[in-house]
Queue: 2 jobs
Job 1
Amino acid sequence: MHELELGSKYILEGEGLKVFTFPAPILKKVAIEVKSFDHELHKTVKNMFFTMYKAPGIGLAAPQVGLSIRLFCLDTEFERERVTAADGSEAFKYSNFNSEVFINPKIISREGEVVCQEGCLSFPGVFEDIKRSETVTVEYQDLNGETLTTKAEGMRAICIQHELDHLDGIVFLEKLSPLKRALIIKKFQKKKKKRGSLG
Ligand code: CO
């Protein structure tokens, strides 16, 4: 399976999943290990990519779509362009896919420190500077259950740490001071009530 081919396939063929937003209890749960690498898992991953690209987001963890299992999808490279379809409606053209799936991931080493602005599909409209390791080495399994290791840097490293936190029931705002976190959450919930959005 070639990752680049997977990307375009996911965006064309998936099914949109509901993304749970804070304070959904599932976001606080520690997810369980993936044990069977079956058709069901492949389908889940495909739908997660579809949901992620459509949002659009650069990462999506299974608990965010209501599944408390240890896996997340990532693509820090794809590009999305707004285009007008033949019938005049708005559409998006996607390119430069680099779809990656991390199943049962573990960070086995980390180096350096970096501060970067992060957002999260479970906190729409919230962007905050978060401190993370600059590079991480991750051991994980792919869709076939094979164990792989990768060293990540830049946006990819930040994203891996953000998504891995989701598997442990940690949302990115928990990396902030309690006071700052409380303020942001209060503001977010006020806005959410106004919008009347669910999740
Ligand atoms: Co997130």
Note: Residues 100 and 169 are 21 Å apart (CA to CA).
Job 2
Amino acid sequence: MDQRTEEYRERLIDEAQSTLSPEDVAVIESAANFAIIAHGEQRRLSGLPYVTHPLETARKLAAMHLPHDVVVAGVLHDTHEDAGVPLAEIEQRFGADVARLVDGVTKVGKVKYRGEERYAENLRKMFVALADDLRVMFIKFADRLHNLEDLAVVPEPKRTRIAREALEIYAPIANRLGMGEIKGKLEDLSFPYLYPKESAWVESLIASRRKHQHLLGEIRDVAVRLFEEQKIAVLAIDGRMKHRYSLYLKLLRYNRDITEIYDLLALRIIVPTVADCYNALSVIHRRWEPLKGRIKDYISNPKPNGYRSIHTTVTCAHGDTFEFQIRTMEMHEEAEWGAAAAWRYHERGNAKLPEHQLRWVDDLIRWIRKVHDPKELIEGLRTEVLRDRILVFTPKGDVIDLPDGATAVDFAYHIHTDIGNRTIAARVNGSTALYPLDRPLQSGDIVEIVTDPKRCGPSPEWPGSVKTAHARRKINNALRGSVRSKLAGWLARATPKRSRNKPQG
Ligand code: MN
């Protein structure tokens, strides 16, 4: 066996052993040996044996602590398409579930990203896979991450296609599934290929903040001592550099001024319980001055994608600012691995996404199945997937997930078309004052829709102010319908008139 193949195989087994039972590891090992034979002398463009790719894909899945069948499917994911192994053989050796996963991954990968229609079709396949079996998506993430790591040797235009797809499709999906670590890696690996100048500029800015990095080490030491004195158990405390691409986007919002970016470097503290989180926060605030308006309690107010942590920015001796991020291990795992973490907290095969993520996937699939015009599909996906989201509430406390910038009209149509069509006003957060129907809602708003049963259609101005494809579609349908019924009414009234004017006898 090639020595590098052996190295990759060892790394996969090591990773699997850290979380899985010896029986599970044995199955992974036999799948690895099977894949090594199946891929034979095939090579990657980098010159490495091809099988190093599925072995590394599987290792990443094991690192996400996914169950062994997902890891096994990761090992085998290219044996059907690239090595001609029949699905029946995979099924016979590794079971129907693994064969189904390999089939799912193969199908998503078939369509290439070329032209708008292909792009739409690609997206559609991806979302069908997502709805069908989320595990296929996890394998695609691991597969794409490794392809990005190897991208330098891939010729154009394939290189740009892979990077663009990662940045524009995979990363937003990972984000919506709450998989922060995967999203960050997908973006950071594709960023330099798509935006070389901008990426080099971000690197140079980071280099200019080296002194800051050194200071962070000192702060960490002080914090460790403080927590010891206060008897707060700390499971982990580490400095973390902001992901490059999200730093780039943030710089664009802050006049390209890196001194305005408070979370460039953060100290991440992982403690056992929620109470410890708040205790740790007060210890930090007693030692360092917190910056006003920079304390964010995402534990009591989670972000729309489910993210929980406490963030605070403090000023230290030299006037430099640092961000602390405090969370429990469970919150940490969810923040890094999102849906994958949710998956493994449940019985195998019975995994459920957090409810708001599940509803988002469901709504999206229902909508995708209805829309057949590729232009409309792409436009809709841009607003539904690639945009930031807000979470708002009904007066009963149900959570409604909408794109950033959505209005009360979007909210009303999300609840029901009839409610949308009869909306005359909205009230937000219990205020007696009416909330303008074209003003964007904010995350956390409680929205009450005022309807008039006699009102039977939307206002002609609404299509211009709503943000969701769903609301726009329903409004346009209703407006078209009402033009038709007005016309019908006019004709009905006109006809007898004409007959009255008919000359008698
Ligand atoms: Mn692959």
Note: The longest helix spans residues 469-501.
